[in-house]
Amino acid sequence: MAAGCGETDDSPKSGDTAPRIVHFSASPQTPKFVLTATGSDGDVATAELEVPSVPPPAIDTFGAMPGRVGRGEEVHLSWTRTDASRVELEIGGQPVDAELEVDGTHAVALDADATIVLKAFNAAGAVEERTVTVTIGPRTPS
After folding, report:
1. Environment class of residue 40 by beta-carbon count within 10 Å: exposed (0-12), middle (13-18) or buried (19+)?
2. pLDDT tens-place string over residues 57-83
3. Among candidates 103, 36, 116, 39, which has minimal Cα distance to 74?
4. Backbone phi, psi, residue 104, to 5°
5. What is the pLDDT at residue 14?
6. What's the first-to-final CA gap in the chain, in angstroms?
7. I need a surface site. Which of 34, 92, 126, 138 has the fewest CB within 10 A?
8. Three-state secondary structure string covering the chain
9. Alpha carbons 61 and 23: distance in angstroms, whole number
10. Which fold does the domain 58-136 belong to in CATH?
11. Long-range pairs for 10-17 at CB < 8 Å and ≥24 separation?
């Protein structure tokens, strides 16, 4: 039997009029489920359910400028994404409490070296993460 398919040998009992499932199939290539049932009178019914696919979220760019700042100075974060309906930021493991645009920027003042994580979520809840690290110290001359 192929993966994703099921069959039963559940013949009707005398006086039993309940339909019996004879075939169920699903395919990862086609997001469609097909259910076929046969009643004790031989009538066949088929139902199909098509499930829309949701592309995974992707973070196209994520960066921090500058990557090294003085204590208390602001770093400017920027990002772009594809197929994400919302984004979240974490700085040093703590969530940033701000309304963020899905393609956007955010400025934050840092007092210590920090790992900053951007999370992009799609409508199905799948997530992609990207990380940047910002260090505290004298800026490197351009």
Report:
1. middle
2. 999 999 999 999 999 999 999 999 999
3. 116
4. -165, -165
5. 56
6. 65
7. 138
8. CCCCEECCCCCCCCCCCCCEEEEEEECCCCCEEEEEEECCCCCEEEEEEECCCCCCCEEEEEEEECCEECCCCEEEEEEEEECCCEEEEEECCEECCCCCCCCEEEEEECCCCEEEEEEEECCCCCEEEEEEEEEECCCCCC
9. 46
10. Immunoglobulin-like (2.60.40)
11. 12/39, 12/40, 16/40, 17/41
Q: Domain residue spans in the chain?
A: 5-10+18-50, 58-136
**How confident is residue 110, by pLDDT bands cut at 50, 70 and 90?**
very high
Distance between CA atoms of residues 35 and 50, nearest Å: 12
Contact of 58 with 83, CB cutoff 8 Å: yes
Residue type, 96: V
pLDDT reported for residue 46: 84
Tokens read off for 35: 């259910």
Task: Name the β-bridge partners of 105.
Answer: 78
Q: Which of 9-23, 25-39, 61-75 has the highest mean pLDDT?
A: 61-75
